[in-house]
Write a structure and sequence with these properties.
Shape: elongated
Helix content: 55-70%
Distance between the termini: 35 Å
Radius of gyration: 30 Å
Low-confidence stretches: 1-42
Mean pLDDT: 87
Number of helices: 29
C-alpha cells in the first residue's frame, strides 16, 4: 500500500510566536510585550518578528551568502553563551522574571539566527561536531514556551525532508546525532507540555509532529524507536478527540507512516488498543460524511492505517471482537463517503487463513445483503467510489467474494451460493459480463506484448518478462483471476443450473470455458510448488479446473 503523500494542509509556520496583544500578567506575556516594545534599530536583535522572518527568507534566496565552518561555530558559541547567561539569571532571580527578560529575548534571537544553517546543509557535520545538536535539544526543555517553539521551528527546518535528502551524508550525520540525543523522547515531552488551546502552541505541536515525520522518512528504522518512546500511543490518544482540526489530520498521516514503515509497529498496535481507537474514530462517519476536504483526507488516512494493521494476523481477532466487521457492513449499507474504504478494509480483513473467522462473521451478520449491491452496480461517479477507479472498485468486491468462497463451508457457503441462484441467476449474468469485459482487456494487452516481443531483437530476459506481467496486471489481470476463481468455485459446487447458465451466456458471446481454465492454470502455476498454504491453494485450483 502507498500512502506516503505529503499533506497540503499545514498551519502557517512563523519564525517565532508573534504578539497577541497586552500581557495578562504571566511571564510569557511580559516576554512578548518587551519584544514588541523594544526600540527599533537596524541591527538584528531589535528587529520585529516580521523583519527577522523577512531577513531569513532573503538569506535563503540569496545563493551568494555562504556559511563557513567558522561562522557556524561562532553561531553555536554565541547561542551557548546566551543560554548560559539566561540560566544564570533565572537561577539568581527566580522570583523576579523582569530581571532575566532581556536575556530571554537575546536567546530567542540567537535561535532565529541559526535558521540560516538550514540553507547550507553541508554545514550539518560542523553543527554536530561543535555540540550544536546537543545544545539545541537541551533548549527543548526550557521553561519558556516561546523559546521551545523557536527551537521547534529550527529543528523543523533543519530536518526538512528535501534538505536531508539533498544533503545525503551530511543529512544523515544530523539525523544520527538527533537520535543519539534521544530526540524522540524529548519530542514526546514537548507534545505533552503544549496547550493546543493556545493558537501558537497548537502550531508548534504541528511542527513537532513534522519533525517526527521528517526523521522517520529519513530513516524508516526510527518508526520502531518512535513506538518504543510512546509517540504512537500519544497519537492514538490524540485521535480520540472527536472534534476535527489540522493537528488531528497530521496525527492520522503520521500514524499511517509509522505503521507502513514497521512490521513490528503493526503487530504491536493491538497491545495499545490501536485497533479499537481507529474503529471508534471511524465510527463517526458511518452515518455522516466529513464536512471538509481535510477531514475526508483524515478519514481515508485512518482507513489506510486500519488496512495496514490488519496485515498482522493478531489484529484480525481484535478487529473481530471490536465489531469491526459489523461497522464496515453498516458503512456499506449507509452509502456515505466511508463506503468505498470500508470495502477495502473488508478485503484486508477477510483474506487468507487469518480471515476465516471474519468471513464467518460477515455472513452470519447478513453482510451479503450489503455486499452484492456493490457487485451488481459500480457507482458511476468517482466521488461516490471514494476516489477509487471502476477497476479498483470491482477488484475489491470480487476479492471479498473470492475470500468468502475460499474461507467458508457448510451452511455459510450454501448461503453464498444461493446468491448466484436467486433472481433467475442475475448475479451469474453480472459475473459473466465482468468476465468478458476483463477478458477483452487481457486479450488486447497480450496482443500488444506479443507485437512488442516480435520487435525486440534480443531474447526476452526475466526482468522484461516481469515488466510484461506487471503490464498485464495493470490492465486488470488480477481482477480477471478473481472473477475466474469465482466462476470455477460456483461451477464446481454441484449446482447444475449455474453451470448451464454460464455455458449459455458464454456461447451467446462466442466464448467458451477454455479461457477460464487457461487463466486459472497460469495463476496456479505462479503459486509455486513449496509445501505451504500457496501449494494448498494451487492443488485446490487445479482440482476445480479438472472438475470443470
Amino acid at each position: 500500500m502507498d500512502i506516503e503523500e505529503l499533506l497540503d494542509f499545514q498551519p502557517e509556520r512563523t519564525l517565532k510566536r508573534g504578539p497577541d496583544g497586552e500581557a495578562d500578567g504571566d511571564f510569557e506575556g511580559m516576554f512578548k510585550k518587551r519584544a514588541v516594545d523594544a526600540p527599533q534599530k537596524k541591527n538584528y536583535e531589535d528587529m520585529t518578528d516580521e523583519e527577522r522572518l523577512a531577513l531569513v527568507m532573503e538569506l535563503e534566496e540569496d545563493n551568494t551568502v555562504e556559511l563557513d565552518e567558522g561562522t557556524v561555530r561562532k553561531m553555536i558559541l554565541n547561542l551557548d553563551k546566551k543560554h548560559a547567561k539566561n540560566q544564570e539569571l533565572r537561577i539568581k532571580h527566580t522570583e523576579q522574571p523582569e530581571r532575566f527578560m532581556d536575556s530571554e529575548i537575546e536567546l530567542h534571537v540567537e535561535i532565529g539566527k541559526c535558521l540560516t544553517i538550514a540553507t547550507q546543509p553541508q554545514m550539518y557535520p560542523v553543527l554536530v561536531e561543535c555540540g550544536g545538536v546537543t545544545l539545541v535539544i537541551s533548549l527543548l526543555t526550557h521553561p519558556n514556551s516561546d523559546i521551545v517553539l523557536g527551537v521547534v521551528d529550527l529543528l523543523h527546518e533543519l530536518t526538512d525532508t528535501d534538505i536531508i535528502s539533498e544533503a545525503m551524508d551530511a543529512g544523515q550525520v544530523l539525523v544520527e546525532a538527533l537520535v543519539k540525543n534521544q530526540i524522540m523522547s524529548i519530542l514526546l515531552q514537548v507534545l505533552e507540555s503544549l496547550d493546543e488551546k493556545n493558537e501558537d502552541e497548537a502550531k508548534g505541536l504541528h511542527n513537532v509532529l513534522g519533525i517526527a515525520e521528517n526523521l522517520v522518512e529519513a530513516d524508516p528504522d526510527l518508526a520502531e524507536h518512535a513506538f518504543k518512546q510512546g509517540l504512537l500511543l500519544w497519537i492514538l490518544n490524540r485521535l480520540k478527540v472527536r472534534s476535527f482540526d489540522a493537528n488531528k489530520l497530521y496525527c492520522s498521516e503520521l500514524l499511517a507512516v509509522l505503521l507502513q514503515s514497521s512490521t513490528s509497529n503493526r503487530s504491536s498496535l493491538g497491545n495499545i488498543e490501536g485497533i479499537d481507537t481507529m474503529l471508534q474514530a471511524l465510527a463517526l462517519y458511518k452515518r455522516r460524511n466529513p464536512q471538509l476536504a481535510e477531514e475526508q483526507e483524515m478519514m481515508h488516512n485512518l482507513f489506510d492505517s486500519l488496512c495496514l494493521a490488519l496485515l498482522a494476523p493478531a489484529n484480525r481477532d481484535i478487529f473481530l471482537k471490536g465489531e469491526g466487521v459489523e461497522l464496515m457492513i453498516l458503512m456499506l449499507r449507509e452509502k456515505k463517503m466511508s463506503r468505498p474504504p470500508a470495502l477495502k478494509v473488508l478485503n484486508f480483513a477477510l483474506q487468507g487463513d487469518e480471515g476465516i473467522n471474519c468471513c464467518a462473521k460477515f455472513i452470519d451478520v447478513y453482510g451479503l445483503r450489503s455486499l452484492f449491491p456493490c457487485f451488481m452496480k459500480t457507482p458511476g461517479k468517482k466521488a461516490k467510489r471514494g476516489g477509487f477507479s471502476e477497476m479498483e472498485w470491482v477488484e475489491h468486491v470480487t476479492s471479498i467474494i473470492s475470500h468468502l468462497l475460499r474461507n467458508t463451508s457448510g451452511s455459510q457457503l450454501q448461503r453464498l451460493m444461493n446468491k448466484f441462484v436467486e433472481e433467475d441467476h442475475l448475479k451469474v449474468d453480472r459475473l459473466i459480463e465482468l468476465h468478458l469485459f476483463y477478458l477483452g482487456r487481457a486479450k488486447s494487452v497480450d496482443e500488444e506484448i506479443r507485437e512488442e516481443k516480435e520487435m525486440l531483437e534480443e531474447e526476452v530476459d526475466e526482468e522484461k518478462e516481469n515488466e510484461f506481467y506487471m503490464k498485464r496486471l495493470d490492465a486488470g489481470l488480477f481482477t480477471l483471476q478473481r472473477l475466474n476463481y469465482i466462476l470455477l468455485s460456483i461451477c464446481t459446487a454441484g449446482i447444475t443450473s449455474i453451470v448451464e447458465r454460464v455455458k449459455q451466456l458464454l456461447t451467446l458471446k462466442g466464448e467458451s470455458m477454455q479461457p477460464i481454465k487457461d487463466i486459472m492454470q497460469e495463476y496456479a502455476d505462479s503459486l509455486g510448488d513449496d509445501v505451504n498454504k500457496a501449494n494448498e491453494e494451487k492443488i485446490n485450483i487445479t482440482h476445480m479446473i479438472n472438475q470443470l
